[in-house]
Design brief:
The protein is an alpha+beta fold and 108 residues long. It contains three helices and eight strands, in the order ββββαββββαα. The protein is globular.
């Protein structure tokens, strides 16, 4: 897990690796180390059950409206597993891509 800070704003992002963890859940959905399609299915089910919309992140991954989480996938041998970036753009940015360092998008 890596934490990212911006001077004057404080903690803005926390990256949780898909292989190293730790295991994290949000609203009862296990986020880390999963096959991406299984996670996306659970996110879609949650959105439908709670009458929430689904959005696509700037990276093209699916997330539930209102979740300040950027999801992605990384190689794990012959498969891919999910990682998550928790972020708070506050008043300093519009999206996670505006505040997270480039290494986040290339950490796998």
């Amino acid at each position: 897990m890596k934490c990212y800070f911006i001077e004057g704003a404080g903690l803005t992002c926390v990256l949780v690796d898909g292989l190293l963890g730790p295991q994290v859940t949000h609203e009862g959905i296990r986020l880390i180390g999963r096959v991406p399609s299984d996670l996306y299915h659970d996110m879609e089910t949650y959105a439908l059950e709670h009458d929430l919309g689904l959005q696509s992140s700037p990276g093209g991954d699916l997330f539930v409206e209102g979740f300040e989480i950027e999801l992605g996938a990384q190689r794990a041998g012959d498969t891919a597993v999910t990682w998550a970036l928790f972020f708070n753009t506050g008043t300093i940015a519009g999206t996670s891509w505006d505040i997270a360092p480039a290494e986040v998008w290339h950490h796998w």
